């Protein structure tokens, strides 16, 4: 959405003007040329005879480019191109004549297909003017500035010229914008305008699968809607949906389906054989989930108001520019039609990061003797070492690589640093991970948990099969908390407690700290840290001489969204009568969270010498006394004077001695 004004530049020696749209009308005195699109309607009337051949060649070349190529969106640093028409137009404010150029960076489908170029205050115009040595008059800011690039900010108006009497010299550009539009409107020299940059949505497909269009054509080729009584239009059963060979949809070959009749007149009709894209269904599937059996409407209004909008939408980055865009467009159309009651379909969007293939390793080898060279000794641009020796980059097998600090190096020569990089999974690179194979080796729960444990949900992450192995080991430890592996019976260390009063407070504290962390992390989509909290619980529970079954049941509830298969098995063995997924989520008891003791690190002159355990509510004086009385500390303070005592509450004590 762009708000601005349309101005008319009268073409010299012609009866028509060129209308331009601008969001910065206050810069109009800085116009040094006008650019029109190669598709501009009156282009042929603007070209002088001496320029006609050059313009014709340029326009023909522009037709062969896509919009992305023309605007430079497909590639950075694309050089601007254009040719002069030989015609001039009159500035509606200053009265100056400016040349008219044809340039392919101006698109005929946006705005009016023409732009007023202000090189000093628009970077695209600046680059074009620099390319063709056109003037760059400054009209905002300091007129004495020597510009190396366009100044696109706000500032005072300068070098102002107006034939209709309005003086804006020295006025701020934001205020001048308002005054000028008001003035030009009063003098019928401009029209306020709001423009939208829209692109056509190619909605039909020449293929079998997809929703058929409910459109038929009569013998004159006029389109008609299919009668409501004949909806929905269903795809025919076919033996082959190979391309027709004519450029038409495969459906065009199914004559029995294509040819139909008017239910009223009996006259012959032909069906539309193109089908809708996959977006047609997925754009509003969330509505249909609410009311899937409704045959009379997309969704019942009462159900729609109860369930929608969708609370959370999780999708990949590619959905943000495709499915999300289309679904919002579709939803807004339905809102305008009165089918839905909300303007937006989704309340919250989270884009999950892509899972890349495993790290691939490469190393540099000298071309003369094939010896390895560390990557930090090679200019990656030229592939040469400092002495000019040529190298080549070759793949290194993962079993020949090891981690050394922040770098990957050769196992047999740690002085050689390697290039490591994870790529997007693709068949061409051969780095696709088949989930069926992973499930077969480690189980679905291990795969699920590893994907969630890899890192923050939104982060791009490289796959590592060893990580799945580690997750499988974690789930095995969970199983052994409850089940004796040798006998496949409940573990002897599992005990039932009727009242819970005989359960050690330490155990309950560990459980409720885990409940709090997993609940909060799950709610906020921090799945990796939720799993980390459960791992800490398992580490603690493994050391317990007796494991209260009630605590284990609560833990299994926490685990169930992450590892549903093993959780269901353990839940049944722990006495659960129905699915763990139907049980109540554990509730944290705040009174059980507080620690009774705290661990304090003790330093002497900044170096850790001991760790002491003190009561959670211990005073500073008692903590300092305990720190100095620690045997590990006294070895470094004996015979020395404690000159300063530093205490960081709940964390550490630092004794400065001399």
Structure description:
- This protein is of the alpha+beta class.
- The strands form nine sheets. Strands 1, 2, 3, 4, 5, 6 and 7 form a seven-stranded mixed β-sheet that branches. A four-stranded antiparallel β-sheet has the order 9-8-11-10. Strands 15, 16, 19 and 23 form a four-stranded antiparallel β-sheet that branches.
- Helix 17 (549-559) packs antiparallel against helix 18.
- It is extended and about 100 Å long.
Report how far apart the termini are.
70 Å
Based on secondary structure, the structural category is alpha+beta
User: What characteristic shape results from the CA principal axes?
Assistant: extended
In total, the number of strands is 30
Poorly predicted residue ranges: none
Q: How would a crystallographer describe the biggest sheet?
A: 7 strands, mixed
Task: Write the SSE topology.
Elements: E1 2-11, E2 17-22, E3 33-36, H1 43-46, H2 49-63, H3 67-71, E4 83-90, E5 97-102, E6 114-117, H4 123-132, H5 173-186, E7 190-195, E8 215-217, E9 223-225, H6 255-258, E10 259-261, E11 268-271, H7 279-282, H8 285-290, H9 301-307, E12 313-316, H10 317-321, H11 323-337, E13 349-352, E14 355-356, E15 360-366, E16 372-373, E17 378-379, E18 384-385, E19 391-396, E20 401-404, E21 407-410, E22 413-417, E23 419-421, H12 435-442, H13 444-453, E24 461-462, H14 465-482, E25 494-495, H15 505-523, H16 527-542, E26 547-548, H17 549-559, H18 564-573, E27 597-604, E28 607-615, H19 620-629, H20 631-637, E29 642-648, E30 652-657
Parallel strand pairs: 3-5, 12-13, 14-24, 25-26, 27-30
Antiparallel strand pairs: 1-2, 1-4, 1-7, 3-6, 4-5, 8-9, 8-11, 10-11, 15-16, 15-19, 15-23, 17-18, 20-21, 21-22, 27-28, 29-30
């Amino acid at each position: 959405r762009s708000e601005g004004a349309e101005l008319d530049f009268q073409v010299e020696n012609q009866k028509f003007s060129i209308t331009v749209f601008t969001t910065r009308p206050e810069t109009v005195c800085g116009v040094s040329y006008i650019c029109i699109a190669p598709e501009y309607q009156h282009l042929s009337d603007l070209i002088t005879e001496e320029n006609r051949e050059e313009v014709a060649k340029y326009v023909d070349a522009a037709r062969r480019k896509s919009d992305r190529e023309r605007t430079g969106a497909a590639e950075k640093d694309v050089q601007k191109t254009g040719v002069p028409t030989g015609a001039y137009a009159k500035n509606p404010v200053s009265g100056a004549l400016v040349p008219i150029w044809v340039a392919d960076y101006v698109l005929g489908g946006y705005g009016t297909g023409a732009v007023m170029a202000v090189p000093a205050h628009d970077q695209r115009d600046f680059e074009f003017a620099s390319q063709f040595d056109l003037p760059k008059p400054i009209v905002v800011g300091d007129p004495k500035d020597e510009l190396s690039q366009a100044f696109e900010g706000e500032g005072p108006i300068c070098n102002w010229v107006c034939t209709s009497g309005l003086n804006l010299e020295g006025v701020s550009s934001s205020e001048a914008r308002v005054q000028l539009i008001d003035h030009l409107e009063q003098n019928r020299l401009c029209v306020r305008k709001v423009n939208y940059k829209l692109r056509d949505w190619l909605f039909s497909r020449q293929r079998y699968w997809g929703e058929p269009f409910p459109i038929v054509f009569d013998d004159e080729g006029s389109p008609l809607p299919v009668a409501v009584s004949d909806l929905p239009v269903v795809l025919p059963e076919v033996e082959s949906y190979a391309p027709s060979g004519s450029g038409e949809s495969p459906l065009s070959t199914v004559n029995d389906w294509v040819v139909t009749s008017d239910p009223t007149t009996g006259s012959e009709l032909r069906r539309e054989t193109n089908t809708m894209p996959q977006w047609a269904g997925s754009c509003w599937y969330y509505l249909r989930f609410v009311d899937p059996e409704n045959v009379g409407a997309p969704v019942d209004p009462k159900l729609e108001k109860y369930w929608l909008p969708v609370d959370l939408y999780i999708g990949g980055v590619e959905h943000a520019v495709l499915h999300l865009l289309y679904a919002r467009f579709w939803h807004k159309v339905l809102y305008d039609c009165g089918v839905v009651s909300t303007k937006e379909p989704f309340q919250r969007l989270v884009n999950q990061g892509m899972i890349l293939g495993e790290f691939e390793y490469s190393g540099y080898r000298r071309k003369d003797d094939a010896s390895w060279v560390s990557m930090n000794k090679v200019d990656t641009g030229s592939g040469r070492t400092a002495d000019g020796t040529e190298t080549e980059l070759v793949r290194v097998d993962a079993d020949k690589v090891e981690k050394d600090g922040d770098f990957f190096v050769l196992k047999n020569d740690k002085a050689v640093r390697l290039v490591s990089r994870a790529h997007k999974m693709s068949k061409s690179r051969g780095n696709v991970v088949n989930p069926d194979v992973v499930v077969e080796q480690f189980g679905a729960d291990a795969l699920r948990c590893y994907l969630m444990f890899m890192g923050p949900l939104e982060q791009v992450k490289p796959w590592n099969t060893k990580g799945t192995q580690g997750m499988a080991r974690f789930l095995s430890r969970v199983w052994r908390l409850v089940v004796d592996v040798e006998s496949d019976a409940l573990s002897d260390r599992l005990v039932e407690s009727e009242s819970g009063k005989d359960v050690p407070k330490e155990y309950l504290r560990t459980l409720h700290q885990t409940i709090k962390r997993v609940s909060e992390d799950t709610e906020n989509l921090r799945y990796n840290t939720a799993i980390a909290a459960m791992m800490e619980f398992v580490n603690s529970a493994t050391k317990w001489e007796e494991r209260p079954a009630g605590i284990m049941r609560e833990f299994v509830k926490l685990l169930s969204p992450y590892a549903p298969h093993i959780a269901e098995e353990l839940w049944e063995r722990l006495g659960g009568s129905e699915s763990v997924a139907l049980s109540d989520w554990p509730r944290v008891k705040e009174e059980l969270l507080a620690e009774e003791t705290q661990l304090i690190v003790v330093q002497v002159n900044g170096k850790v010498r001991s760790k002491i355990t003190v009561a959670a509510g211990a005073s500073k004086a008692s903590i300092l006394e305990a720190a100095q009385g620690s045997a590990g500390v006294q070895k470094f303070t004996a015979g020395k004077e404690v000159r300063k005592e530093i205490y960081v509450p709940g964390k550490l004590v630092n004794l400065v001695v001399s």
